[in-house]
Amino acid sequence: MWFASSVKQAFGTSAAIWYALFQASQFHIIYYASRTLPNIFALVFSTIALRSLLKAYAMPWSVTAVPTGYRLCLYLLTISGVIFRSELAILVATITIYLFVTRGISIPKIIIPAGLSGAVIGLLTTIPIDSFFWQSFPLWPEWTGFYYNTIQGHSAEWGVSPWHFYFANALPRLMLNPLTYLLCIPVALLNASTRRRSLDLLIPLLSFVGVYSVLPHKEWRFIIYIIPGLTAVAAAGASWIWTRRAKSLIYGTLSLAVLGSVVLSFAASTAVLAISSLNYPGGAALDYLHNNIDHLSERHFQVFFDNLACQTGVTRFLESHDGPQTILDVLEAQDLQDKRTWTYDKTEDPELLLDPMFWSRFDYVLAERPEKVIGSWEVVHTEYGFGGIRVLKPGQKGGMAPSRPIATADEETGKQTGLTAKVASAWKTLEGILRYRFLRGYWIEVRMDPKINILENQLKSPPKTL
């Protein structure tokens, strides 16, 4: 709620409350806040930086803390850009140019000290740590990624989106509530009391998006840093409408519409949360491999993960390392002979993936397409993941091929198990309550498609007895 305190100082208590409601009902930031993505780490720093910027806007220029707030904003964004995400350099540039043009901030007293100190501290932090873990010195990961994707132009290899993708697709999805950008932000700009501070946020933030739209490859996480600022402006507009709800029928209707949109956003976020839980078949497949595959007498296994498995839930947090990992484990363990150990591989070298000898050493492979795995393999399990949704009309039964229910079943008991089963049960319960009682027979069907196959090496597995 740090940023909400700056919204309160800039736009008032009512705006701070609306900011909390809008932000809490947005799906992506809340959902991804626990993810260990560099963008999310950068989001923490950028939000604190925007807080300092907004607090400085709210103070008279004569106050000593104003230049300090501008300097702290640029300093934090620079550190975050150097360590976590290089695209923040564009945001630093747009904010710096805007402050220089509109506030006349000092180059030697604010811009240079903030930029130099932020860059030095960031480099002294990232280069030693990343060089050690990657065993390559000197290594500055963000510069390496920027050089490869931007200067050498490889970003297009990850996919190309039209120039308007961020404005027409990503921002509406991130804001989620359509009234925030269709009604509240325009109201904040039209209202004289909130226009200046709204423009102080919107111009540099949207300029950042505009400049970044030049790159062909686009993802919503690249611009997530501006969402708190846009939400603050939307909150200012909602507050202005809400405080006038008793003055006329129009304001009263708009107030109810904004309040209702928050309720609907919470409901939509809850539904999307349930669906998003079905997006991790790679993690579910690895868990199944560890706990459900009959490994017989073998004690050590080598497992390969393909690209889709790694994108859909396979992480180091799920890897099993019960066996000895260091020399101390070997010296201290008393029952190593009874422990099962695993070795994992995520090789992406296309030439190596065409070598039959490369595949021969693996016991299991988690792959989207079994036909790409060279050798003698058998599919022993298939994990399903989210495959899309469709609207069912009254009287229309569900079922879209290829699909299966959102559940897995225990072969011995026949009972549904796992997170997908819980989601399926809850969704079925909601259908029984809502579809025919309130929605006149309409419903949304969630389709599950086969995503990740667990392949067993037939040349390494022991013969099966009948």
Name the descriptors.
single chain; 466 residues; alpha/beta; 2 domains; five-stranded mixed beta sheet; two-stranded antiparallel sheet; 18 helices; flat
Write the SSE topology.
Elements: H1 2-11, H2 13-25, H3 27-32, H4 38-57, H5 65-83, H6 88-102, H7 107-134, H8 141-151, H9 165-175, H10 178-190, H11 192-212, H12 227-242, H13 249-276, H14 281-292, E1 300-305, H15 307-311, H16 327-332, E2 341-345, H17 356-360, E3 364-367, E4 377-392, E5 408-409, E6 416-417, H18 418-434, E7 443-457
Parallel strand pairs: 1-2, 1-3
Antiparallel strand pairs: 3-7, 4-7, 5-6
Helix pairs in contact: 1-2, 1-4, 1-12, 2-12, 2-13, 4-5, 5-6, 5-7, 6-11, 10-11, 10-12, 11-12
Tell me what you see in this structure.
- Belongs to the glycosyltransferase 22 family.
- 55% of the residues lie in helices and 11% in strands.
- It is built from 18 helices and seven strands.
- It has helices at residues 2-11, 13-25, 27-32, 38-57, 65-83, 88-102, 107-134, 141-151, 165-175, 178-190, 192-212, 227-242, 249-276, 281-292, 307-311, 327-332, 356-360, 418-434; strands at 300-305, 341-345, 364-367, 377-392, 408-409, 416-417, 443-457.
- The protein has a five-stranded mixed β-sheet. The chain has a two-stranded antiparallel sheet with strand order 5-6.
- Helix 4 (38-57) packs antiparallel against helix 5 (65-83).
